[in-house]
Design goal:
Blueprint (H helix, E strand, L loop, with lengths): L2 H23 L3 E4 L4 H11 L5 E6 L6 H14 L4 E3 L3 H11 L8 H20 L4 E3 L16 E4 L4 E4 L7 H11 L48 E2 L2 E2 L15
Helix pairs in contact: 2-6, 4-5
The chain binds iron/sulfur cluster.
Pathway: Sulfur metabolism; hydrogen sulfide biosynthesis; sulfite from sulfate
GO molecular function: 4 iron, 4 sulfur cluster binding; adenylyl-sulfate reductase (thioredoxin) activity; metal ion binding; phosphoadenylyl-sulfate reductase (thioredoxin) activity
Function: Catalyzes the formation of sulfite from adenosine 5'-phosphosulfate (APS) using thioredoxin as an electron donor.
Length: 249
């Protein structure tokens, strides 16, 4: 067996062990799934052995149809209904009435306000009463995730946050998907390594950063949703007690 194979199998075993520990020590816990490739790896690892970890997605009202169709594919493959959390209708209507449907292109503040309404507030509802949440974030995805840890204290939400794929490479993700026949969003085959809301995501060119297609009109250091803001500020705390800059996807 090659070193590469040994390392991959160790990575998979470590990740399964992390999810097993979450299931036994941190119930109720939930996976915040963007329905992209990393979250499909975790979905497979949770649902195949029947781990008691819930799975939800933020249905922002601006997702690609291909992304929404993943909810049905998960149901067909695993007989599991992903829970959908939607933004408050009144808040969306007020934002659109005051600023326009696509005002997020106008400024970083307008974009963050749209993310707050469509993602941050629904996320807070989805996490209410949970002991831990799980994301598919990887350290290699971008500079804003360079300090990501497998386990972090999420002070903003008052719980533990797990990033079981923190050490995974993109190749590891696709190797797992291929070897385990995991369903995945077809947009990944069309140049979208990172998938968010439709108007805020575009395909990338070969050699571009994985998250270059997200909020492409902004500077790289503003490209997060604010899902881990503390008192309105991006927070970075070192080592295990760590709330990083970041988002679900
Ligand atoms: S990603 Fe774009 S459309 Fe989606 S919530 Fe954020 S600003 Fe709004």
């Amino acid at each position: 067996m090659s070193d590469n194979q040994v390392n991959f199998e160790r990575l998979v075993a470590d990740t399964r062990a992390t999810l097993g520990r979450i299931a036994t020590e941190f119930t109720p816990a939930v996976l915040a799934s963007s329905l992209a490739a990393e979250d499909m790896v975790l979905t497979d690892m949770i649902l195949r052995p029947g781990l008691p970890i819930g799975i939800f997605t933020l249905e922002t009202g601006r997702l690609h149809k291909e992304t929404l169709q993943m909810v049905e594919r998960i149901k067909q493959t695993y007989a599991y209904d992903v829970e959908l959390f939607k933004p408050e209708t009144e808040a969306v209507d007020a934002y659109v009435k005051a600023n326009g449907l696509n005002a997020f292109y106008d400024s970083v503040d307008m974009r963050k306000e749209c993310c707050r309404i469509r993602k941050v507030e629904p996320l807070n509802r989805a996490l209410a009463g949970k002991k831990a949440w799980v994301t598919g974030q990887r350290r290699a995805q971008s500079t804003t995730r360079a300090e990501l840890h497998v386990q972090e204290d999420d002070a903003a939400h008052g719980m533990v946050k797990f990033n079981p794929l923190a050490d995974w490479s993109e190749d590891d993700v696709w190797r797992y998907i291929r070897e385990n026949d995991v369903p995945y969003n077809p947009l990944h085959d069309k140049g979208y390594p990172s998938i968010g809301c439709e108007p805020c995501t575009r395909a990338i060119q070969p050699g571009e950063d994985i998250r270059a297609g997200r909020w492409w009109w902004e500077n790289a250091d503003t490209k997060e949703c604010g899902l881990h803001l503390v008192d309105g500020k991006l927070v970075r705390i070192s080592a295990k007690a760590n709330v990083t800059e970041g988002n679900v996807k």
